[in-house]
Amino acid sequence: MKNHIVLFEPLMPSNAGNIARTCAGTDTVLDLIKPLGFSVDSRRLKRAGLDYWNSVDIHYHDNLPEFMKSMKPGSRLFLVSKFATHIYTDHDYSKPIKGDYYFMFGKETTGLPEPFMRKNPEKAIRIPQDDSHIRCLNLSNSCAIVIYEAVRQQNFLNLERVHKYPHDKLK
């Protein structure tokens, strides 16, 4: 079982780079659904991801239907949207499943396609926010919030629980 962050048509290279860095730190697969609003050779994308790109398992998909066909059988898909009725903490991500957990996030400007959301309301989750002050949370922050809840429920599987200092200054 693996966790995936899925970005539907991301526009901003700095967000994608930050999300890739979060994926590297959480042993999470990154799925990118085209078209992308940037070149994968972008300096801003590479700078935001620092030198972690070799540690990220990235899958590219030409469109949403191709992505849907690529999902492993037995997987669970969650659509992260401020229009969902269920809160992301309402779900149990610790249950062993035959496939993987996929958390799909929409384009920074328009979110996920409305027809797709309407067909799959039971898969939609949201992060509570005060809509009177902001339209939406930052995409990379939203990804971090949701993926860390999933790995927390999974008892931080495959993640370092204690930081190992490179030198012994604390003795």
From TrEMBL:
Catalytic reactions of this protein: 5-carboxymethylaminomethyluridine(34) in tRNA(Leu) + S-adenosyl-L-methionine = 5-carboxymethylaminomethyl-2'-O-methyluridine(34) in tRNA(Leu) + S-adenosyl-L-homocysteine + H(+); cytidine(34) in tRNA + S-adenosyl-L-methionine = 2'-O-methylcytidine(34) in tRNA + S-adenosyl-L-homocysteine + H(+)
GO molecular function: identical protein binding; RNA binding; tRNA (5-carboxymethylaminomethyluridine(34)-2'-O)-methyltransferase activity; tRNA (cytidine(34)-2'-O)-methyltransferase activity
Enzyme Commission designation: 2.1.1.207
Single GO cellular component term: cytoplasm
Keyword ATP-binding: no
One Pfam family matching this protein: SpoU_methylase
Function: Could methylate the ribose at the nucleotide 34 wobble position in tRNA.
Protein name, UniProt field: Putative tRNA (cytidine(34)-2'-O)-methyltransferase
Annotated organism of origin: Acetilactobacillus jinshanensis
